Amino acid sequence: MTDSPPDTQSEPATRLRVVFLCYGNACRSQMAESIAGRDAADWLDVASAGVSPLGYIPAEVEMVMNEVGCTTEGQSSKSLSEAQRAQAADVIVDLADVLPTRLAEQQVVRRPIVDPFGGDLDDYRRTRDAITEAMPALLAELRERATKKSDPA
What we know:
Helices cover 35% and strands 14% of the residues. It is an alpha/beta fold.
């Protein structure tokens, strides 16, 4: 048996609770919740919310997510206050740069992404692809936060 180097991508001891936020909780935050849930389910608890929730997820979102092996099944459009999502979150990822001032005391990571709502299917794909492209660096940053949360010393 040989000694191998320590795994630098080991899972944090404490799960991190993240809420992806956009304006209507219909497109961007739903896509991010789906992608992060797929890619980091073993150490990340994900949810999504909107400042002014639309109340539904457009069919185009599910269509473009299915193209990359993701789904929004079981997700719903909701506000930050529902189920006390803002208070329960360790980190809020603001995809629309719309975070209300009253939440400024919480840890916030800003990653503005263009909203595809009302556009054609290619607009939804571009938004999905932008989120997918940003996700590895975002997950690395969140993993670091989770590790610090696990080991506050």
